[in-house]
Amino acid sequence: MNKLRAVSEKSLTNNSRIASLLTQLEKINAECLVETDTARYVTSKILHLTQSQEKIKKEMTAKGSTGIEVILSTLENTRDLQTTLNILNILIELVAVGGSRRTSILASKGGTQILLQLLVNVSKDSPPNEDLMVLLHSLLAKLGLKDKKIGVKARISGALNITLNIVKQNLQNQRLILPCLQVLRVYSTNSVNAVSLGKNGVVELMFKIIGPFSKRNTGLMKVALDTLAALLKSKTNARRAVDRGYIHMLLTIYVDWHRHDSRHRHMLIRKGILQCIKNITNIKLGRKAFLDVSGMKILYNTSQECLAVRTLDPLVNTSSLIMRKCYPKNRLPLPTIKSAFHFQLPVIPVNGPVAQLYSLPPEVDDVVDESDDNDDTETDTEIENDNEDDIEQHFKNDDIETDISKLKPKQELGRPIEDLKMYEKFFPELVEDFQEYNLVSKEPKPFSTNVSLGRPIIVPTAGEEQLPTNHSIEIPVKESHPLQMEDYNKRPMSLALVKKNSSMDNSLQHQDDQLKLHSSCQCLNHEIIKGLDRITLQNTPQNEQSYSSRATTQKECKTSFSEVTCNKPLQHISSCGGLLFEGRSVQLGKLCCTGADPEEEEVSCSISLGEQVMLDVPDLLQLHDPELYIEIVKNTKSVPEYSEVAYPDYFGHLPPPFKEPILERPYGVQRTKIAQDIERLIHPSDIIDRVVYDLDSPSYMVPDEGGILKFNSKFESGNLRKVVQIRKNEYDLILNADINSNHYHQWFYFEVSGMRTGIAYRFNIINCEKSNSQFNYGMQPLMYSVQDALNGQPWWIRVGTDICYYKNHFSRSSVAAGGQKGKSYYTITFTVSFPHKEDVCYFAYHYPYTYSTLMMHLQKLESTYNPQQIYFRQDVLCETLSGNGCPLLTITAMPESNYYEHICQFKNRPYIFLSARVHPGETNASWVMKGTLEYLMGNNPTAQTLRESYIFKIVPMLNPDGVINGNHRCSLSGEDLNRQWQNPNPDLHPTIYHAKGLLQYLSAIKRLPLVYCDYHGHSRKKNVFMYGCSIKETMWHTNVSAASCDLTEDLSYRTLPKILSQTAPAFCMSSCSFVVEKSKESTARVVVWREIGVQRSYTMESTLCGCDQGKYKGLQIGTRELEEMGAKFCSGLLRLKRLTSPLEYNLPPSLFDIENDLIESSCKVTSPTTYVLEEDEPRFLEEVDYSAESNDEPDVDLTNNAGDYEPSLQEEGLSDSEITRTHLS
Q1: What is residue 648's predicted lDDT score, i.e. its pLDDT?
Q2: Distance CA 330, CA 332 (A)
Q3: Rounded CA gap, 85 and 107, in Å?
Q4: Which range in 99-113, 478-492, 526-540, 1081-1095 is most confidently predicted, on average pLDDT?
Q5: Which letter does DSSP use for residue 615 in this model?
Q6: What is the 3-class SS of 752-819, one letter each residue?
Q7: Which residues carry out catalysis (predicted)?
Q8: Taking phi first (over 0 means left), then psi (-120 to 50 degrees means alpha), and beta for anything else, what does residue 414 get?
Q9: What pTM, to 2 d.p., does this model score?
Q10: Burial of 673: CB neighbours in 10 Å, binned 0-12, 13-18, 19+
Q11: Measured between alpha carbons, how far is residue 174 from residues 96, 139, 272, 303 in Å?
Q12: Cα three-residue angle 338-344-346, rounded to 5 degrees
């Protein structure tokens, strides 16, 4: 007890002591007493206490303490050297290790200005006191880390050159110049100071300090290099260094340290040298000087030697950045950056990028500029200015709309009523009386597996059951048995997504048992495949294409294929081909030349199309019909006039029966790929540089040599412009720009053949424009193997290893970059090993879905639905620029009877308006739409209830021309159609003009849709999510609280996304955003909300990559999941109906049970935070930049708060009845 009391008394004594000493010091300052001895004594005592006890430091800098002010006041007033030294030592103790907070306090109390003034004063002494200068500069170096204005203060006070002169006069005094160099480094972070110091010879001075390898003075060497690196961020200083040949000197010093530092103890010095080189090469002169002294070869060799030691990665990474930056900018090997295809527009836009392209003289070289290497762009400099603290302002996005008058929806027709009457013909359901229909019952008809689904090969596009992977599958061919119904000839009984039951399973099991697998049926015979290679088809007069002739053709074709065996001649195939493809000549792409490679397969096969073998996919509408697809392709109009068909589109495909996880990125893959690119410059003799495919030179013949891959993209939706063989197994691929455009390179779809097994082929798509991609975060391209399809595995699979996306050495011209020079392209690189020799494979950015596929699916849907149950109508909304029809669908339930009340209920159903595929490269939107259409055309009770609740108006493909011609973003007008909704031109944007016209007509007749949703794909985010429109949330993000506090807004726009987050496994509520941006004011979502007045106006974005939450977390997305999302959207609308009309919507409990089974309501897992790539994804070698122009809705930090912001309606976790009560109140 006595011991504790003694400690307590001692502590009290010390606290009282420091307070007493500070009081004495304050009195000396206040009375301006010249008591030198007293001041020395007091400051020495304070110094002793601060050196011996940490708590004294805390007390002096505690909140409310005046200790710092007293010390600084004494320092400012005293003229005694010893007192000054004591105080400086006290301050050194306060800002020692762990004193970051105390350093900030010292800076905030004006310590920087006092120390700088003291430096100016004592510099007048001759010679200045060394101890004083060391302490002063040590303190200033510490304060400089916290005081952003120290550079400006030093320049104004005149202290800038004082420190520089001390270094010049004391080069041999390491103790003195070390803190001086640290201060110069701090000063140089200000660009004005760096230039001023450079003029006074500081760059040359630094090169007197740094030098070759030495174990002495390594600390000084490190500080000198850091100071030099800071100075060289100034372009003026960088030019000075180039003029004096310092690039070569730095490289020589670096190599010397690299060779002698065998134990890697001085990595920081080596990195400092590289940092200096990096800053010099930010200017064009520096890059040229670096190349002239073989800098590429030097850094390449040294970095390769460092790869074995993981701790040297910072050296490898910095070297890689320097080499990439200094790699000479090359032009793309193209005659023009404009598309290889030309389409003459009926009207030339007055302004915009298309107008600029048309105004260019023909002799202009638009591939590259004379000066394509701009000093002012894409450097890694981080120069600060005199207003650094202004940078740390609150986040503000200037793109957010802040004008409330523009945000408030204003229902404006925009067109006269007389003009809108042209759309009456698209709404016959509003005037139909159904008196001529025999409406007996609305009871769903049972699913029949015996109903014909079409004559030819049937390969559905999605299925719940897994296919056997070790057997080939023979596809049934059945004759059509149309229903005998007037006006509905050739329509079989209704087909739908039916719930599995035991009887169905038994029947399917029985069918599965009847599968006949022939011992010789692994693949097509070698000779047969060669005979099928490039079937050339004859032209037949169009008027001969009657139904009877087609029936004869089908019969003959079936017989011919049935008769073909391994040893038969090939004349049957020839004749069949001529009969099959009548009309415009169409070719199938090159089929694999060996159906069974003798080295891989020991058995050959024959194909018997007469075998009745059913695929085990009972849950799907089997919508694929190869022969129907060919017929549709012949009527599809493309700019290049395609005459070939890609096999995946002809055969169809299934989802693979296995999960495809998001690819884990191997460590160091990007720098390895970059190193291989740099080898092209260092070892040019190893580069083949041979063109093997070129759309710009269609007559170009590829040498028929073994080992060279063959490419093709001349089919619907194909995109590949040119291929250059770089090395034996490496190819550079160049994508075609959108027609009437000079950019938007992202979508690719092409064919590869002539491969060998056991070889890793590297593909580089070298003219991408986005600054980053999901290829850096686990996404893989897709591949379809014809050989696998013939062997019973007809599916697209995710393939590729060593995948990364990075900036390359090809430069965009100012025309392509919107006036900016030196903008680089980006490379998607991936490596593939093919499973079969001489196969034919297709690669795609995402699962292809062509216009012809859509038209085939719609025709199959129309021929298989139950007309007594479903009201289905297909119209042509308009013709596109190239003359293709834009389909418009109407789907609802037939009225229960033709009684008046049932007809009234039919006509008064609210509308749902859906659209998709305005951007051709977002093929996932079409797969989601396919899921929606199949659900709506199903005959299960919930689908029927949904149809009875709404009338669906659907435009499944808003941009047919873009899809057909392989565009990524634009239509044939060269414009993004989703930026034309405000003022669409009927001549240039007919689909948008008339789709908007439909909505304007509904508004005019007071039948606004309950929901409008435009299906899209997103290339830079994961999951499925929605963008909506909200005034209050938009204003909330702008912090305009005064303006937004008076706003009242119906929160029902959040209901549908919330429902989907609870029912759809891939949907993520926290990624949704309801902010309205200025840049999106002409999109469908905003225009339909603002002008048409639809409160629930959405864009639904589906990932191109995969999911990071919920049931599919860690998996890449496939067609099954996308189609499921389309079905879940429908079930969400059914729940929305129950929530918005609870009093009139009474369903039997049993129906709710079925609905819950279908939507799997247990999958409610959502991401706890907004998914933003910048924060959630790992960092890689190159700093990720998401600021470049995006082809998607933005994924900036706005969505961070959008997901977390919950207005008064807290729907999460509420039951349907609770949410209903909330809405009603």
Answers
A1: 96
A2: 6
A3: 19
A4: 1081-1095
A5: -
A6: EECCCCCCEEEEEEEEECCCCCHHHHCCCCEEEEHHHHHCCCCCCEECCEEEEEEEEEEECCCCCCCC
A7: 1101 (proton donor/acceptor)
A8: left
A9: 0.77
A10: buried
A11: 21, 17, 19, 32
A12: 135
Contact indicator for 27, 70 with CB cutoff of 8 Å: no
37 CA to centre of own chain: 71
1107/552 Cα distance (integer angstroms) = 49
Residue 365 confidence (pLDDT): 66
Q: How far apart are CA 1177 and CA 1105, in angstroms?
A: 14
For residue 182, give every residue at least 6 positions away whose Cβ sits within 8 Å of its Cβ, in sequence order, or none.
Answer: 137, 138, 141, 223, 227
Residue with tokens 């059914």: 1134
Helices 160-169, 191-199: axis angle to 10 degrees equals 40
Strand order in the sheet with 730-734: 690-694, 722-727, 730-734, 760-768, 824-833, 801-811
User: Phi then psi for 726, rounded to 5 degrees?
Assistant: -95, -55
Give residue 636's Cα distance to chain centre. Answer: 31
- In 3D space, the residue among 832, 843, 751, 766 whose CA is nearest the CA of residue 805 turns out to be 766
Burial 99-133 (b: 16+ CB within 10 A, else e): beebbbbbbebebbbbbbbbbeebbeeeebeeebb
Phi and psi for 802 in degrees, rounded to 5? 50, 50
Cα 621 from Cα 934, distance rounded (Å): 7
Distance (Å, rounded) from C-alpha 822 to C-alpha 378?
Answer: 8
- Cα Rg of the chain (Å, integer): 37
Residue 1217 identity: S
Question: Given phi > 0 = left and psi -120 to 50 = alpha, else beta, which region is 899?
Answer: beta
Q: What is the C-alpha separation between 1023 and 702, in angstroms, rounded?
A: 43
Contact 694, 711 (CB under 8 A): no
* pLDDT, tens only, 567-586: 333 333 222 333 333 334 45
Contact partners, residue 31, CB within 8 Å, separation at least 6: none
pLDDT score of 64 more than 80: no
Within 521-598, residue ranges assigned H as helices are 526-532, 547-563, 571-580
The tens digit of pLDDT for each residue in 741-787 reads: 988 899 999 999 999 999 999 999 999 999 899 999 999 999 999 99
Are the C-beta atoms of residues 140 and 186 closer than 8 Å to each other? yes
Can you read off the two tokens belonging to residue 422? Answer: 């042209």
Q: How far apart are CA 13 and CA 159, in angstroms?
A: 42
pLDDT of 501-543, one tens digit each?
Answer: 333 344 433 333 333 333 333 333 333 333 333 333 333 333 3
Contact 1038, 1047 (CB under 8 A): no
Question: In angstroms, rounded to a whole number, what is the distance separating the alpha carbons of residues 961 and 639?
Answer: 9
Active site residues: 1101
Residue type present at position 473: I
Token pair, residue 1171, equals 């998914």
Beta bridge partners, 833, equal 760
Report for 263-272, 462-471, 1174-1183: range of highest mean pLDDT = 263-272
Distance CA 670, CA 1180 (A): 8
Tokens representing residue 995 in the block = 């789709």
Please give the Cα distance from 850 to 957 (Å, whole number). Answer: 10
Instruction: Please name the residues in contact with 552: beta carbons below 8 A apart, sequence gap of 6 or more.
Output: none
Place of tokens 């005694």: 80
Residue 171, CA distances (Å) to 164, 177, 208, 718, 893 in order: 11, 7, 9, 68, 92
Place of tokens 């129906």: 1151
DSSP string, 183-212: HHHHHTTBHHHHHHHHHTTHHHHHHHH--S
In the numeric block, the tokens 């879905």 are attached to 849
Q: Please state the separation of Cα 867 from the chain's center in Å.
A: 43
Average pLDDT over residues 361-388: 49
